[in-house]
């Protein structure tokens, strides 16, 4: 399978079973609209949240939904509103221990490993430990057969798309600064993954 193909239902089912055996709770959504509704359902009203920069969250309409939404205490709003670099950095570090940290991932294997790559590592700290609850949203095209296939996806397709995204905003390409592989979560119920049967994000 390549980064451009969607997996069949057997592959998705095998991946879900593998993820849940590693204490990652999984919901499968048929559409981006269904995924958005599930995400709204999971995050309780009044919760402190931080939504990471994500093409997938943008695509399902969640980024716009939570922006300045009084339903939540959104730490991302505070980061966007802050102009002082030092204070902005402090707010980003505070976001690492948000009650709900919401974002995406770069690759998922059929055997249940989840890959996260980042230039700064800002989302890796909350994903792997800091946040009380983590919710990932990802298109099923990110499922790769093996560990090595997932690594190729991260270092190939994902990095290429990220560099194109930066170029579109007038920025130079950046290397992968931090790379994490989540093999098992030791707190049941802490991590949730919403898989969407669509090609969304990188």
Describe the structure.
With 202 residues, the chain is an alpha/beta fold. Helix 5 (75-81) runs antiparallel to helix 6 (85-95). It has one domain (9-196): NagB/RpiA/CoA transferase-like (Rossmann fold, 3-Layer(aba) Sandwich). The chain is globular and about 50 Å long. The strands form two sheets. Strands 1-10-7-4-2-3 form a six-stranded parallel sheet. Strands 8-5-6-9 form a four-stranded mixed sheet, with helices on one face. The two termini are 15 Å apart. The protein contains eight helices and ten strands. A hairpin with a 4-residue loop joins strand 5 (107-109) and strand 6 (114-118).
Q: Quick recap of the structure?
A:
The protein is 40% helix and 22% strand. It is an alpha/beta fold. The chain is globular, with a radius of gyration of 16 Å.
């Amino acid at each position: 399978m390549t980064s451009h193909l969607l997996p069949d239902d057997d592959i998705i089912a095998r991946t879900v079973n593998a993820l849940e055996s590693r204490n990652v709770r999984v919901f499968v959504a048929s559409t981006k609209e269904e995924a958005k509704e599930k995400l709204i359902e999971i995050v309780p009203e009044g919760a402190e949240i931080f939504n990471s920069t994500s093409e997938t969250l943008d695509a399902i309409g969640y980024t716009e939904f939570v922006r300045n939404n009084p339903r939540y205490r959104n730490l991302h709003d505070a980061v966007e509103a802050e102009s002082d670099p030092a204070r902005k950095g402090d707010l980003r570090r505070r976001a690492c221990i948000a009650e709900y940290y919401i974002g995406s991932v770069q690759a998922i294997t059929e055997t249940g490993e989840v890959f996260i790559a980042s230039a700064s590592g800002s989302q890796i700290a909350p994903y792997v430990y800091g946040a009380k609850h983590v919710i990932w949203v990802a298109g099923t095209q990110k499922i790769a057969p093996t560990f090595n296939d997932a690594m190729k996806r991260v270092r190939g397709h994902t990095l290429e798309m990220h560099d194109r995204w930066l170029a579109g905003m007038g920025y130079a390409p950046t290397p992968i600064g931090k790379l994490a592989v989540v093999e098992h979560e030791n707190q049941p119920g802490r991590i949730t993954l919403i898989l969407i049967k669509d090609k969304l994000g990188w």
